[in-house]
Amino acid sequence: MAGVGTSMLGSVLLFTVVLSLQEVYRGKLASSELHTILGGFTSSLLFLFSLTFIGNLQESSGMKSGWGAVVFAEIIALVAASTVHRVCITTCFLFSAGLLYEMSKISGYMLGRAESNKSKRH
């Protein structure tokens, strides 16, 4: 698995690339209904990358991650979505909720797997 620093750097780089491409193609993303939904999806990727960065930053500084990180990352993504089209805000929120659900499932699975490996060693 990647370390905290590597994960932070990767998430910042991906956030920057996705945000830059979203702003460059803002007109195209707002041109049709399907492209507007795609704009909301790209903004939800911004949510994923910013949440990864914030979580790793909190972990490296010894703070506990919580819902505050999720809300802050969502606000960042919704503001980015609002620069494209107002419908992107809604689709971003829906895609972000789905991503958050899936991340929670994966996290629970990995945590359970790590605990079972730890109990096998003892």
UniProtKB/TrEMBL annotation:
Keywords: Membrane, Transmembrane, Transmembrane helix
Superkingdom of the source species: Eukaryota
Transmembrane segments: 6-25, 37-55, 75-101
InterPro entries reported in the protein's UniProt record: KRTCAP2 (IPR018614)
Keyword Nucleus tagged: no
The protein, known as: Dolichyl-diphosphooligosaccharide--protein glycosyltransferase subunit KCP2
Protein's organism: Brassica napus (Rape)
Higher taxonomy: Eukaryota, Viridiplantae, Streptophyta, Embryophyta, Tracheophyta
